[in-house]
Amino acid sequence: MQQVVRIVRESSILVIGRAFRAGVKGVPGRLFGDADVQSEPTPFICVTCGTQFSPTPAPLERCAICEDARQFVNPAGQGWTWASMLARRHRNSFRQYEDGVFGIGTVPDFAIGQRALLIRRPSGNVLWDCIALLDSATIEIVKALGGLRAIAISHPHYYTTMVEWSRAFGDIPIHLHEEDRRWVMRPDASIHFWGGDRFELADDLELIRLGGHFEGGTVLHAPNSPAGGALFSGDIIQVVADRTWVSFMRSYPNFIPLGAATIRRMIERLGDAQFDRIYGAWWDAVVWSDGRSAFDRSAARYIAALEST
Length: 309
Fold this sequence. Notes:
The protein is an alpha/beta fold. It has helices at residues 64-67, 83-89, 136-144, 162-168, 260-270, 291-307; strands at 5-10, 13-18, 30-31, 45-46, 79-81, 91-98, 101-107, 116-119, 126-128, 150-152, 174-177, 191-194, 198-202, 205-209, 218-222, 230-234, 238-239, 246-247, 277-280, 286-287. It has a seven-stranded mixed sheet with strand order 6-7-8-9-10-11-12. It has a six-stranded mixed sheet with strand order 13-14-15-16-19-20, with helices on one face. A three-stranded mixed sheet has the order 3-5-4.
């Protein structure tokens, strides 16, 4: 089978497409790979957001996640990769934050660049948020840490290859808020949608729907964390450069703020949850102490800024 590389014009953007088999003249998205030829339907991964889509013979023309106002389409054009190619060019790194909390992140950075968190609990470990790369080394290390019993994800930007993670650890459940159902690009029987504002996950772990960044935006509360209680926030609550403060946005890359009414709703939904530590979405995005106070004064500062004249 001869590989053909063609240039395909979409609107005013030139993107590179790659033929997969005889009879396919080209694909409308740019592929990040080498001489591999995909002979079967492939669950392609968007290189800008890291979302994996249901298997198709060729990449889709567009990524619905990136075309939403909260994300962005790469100015160079829509690009795609796949699991084996991603594993050739990247690896995962692990970091222990405290007893029972391990970060898992990809180096060099891929897509949005977030890291996931493995939270160890007596009844089984939980993966909080997700990353696109799942290689054999990661599977072995996670199994050595006790494996996984469930996955919970804050919002659609971090859904990535959640189905691959579920299957690798025995088709474990993936818990997503039902308000974000439309953003699931690879439906699977392992995905469980929950509703309302609170969901008891395992042991002392509770999912709290705050909304904000996404309608189903979720944080995970661990009141019995050794650090004095912890809140795992993704970027629903964004730990900022000054690690004693947090912030909130509808779109981070496009600088679209949330309204004051939305912030007040988030405060109400969080209720009286107590936590000393806030784990954000990146390696060093951690409020190490006085986390509840940091949230309260940050929310007040944000509302004041919106309402100032």
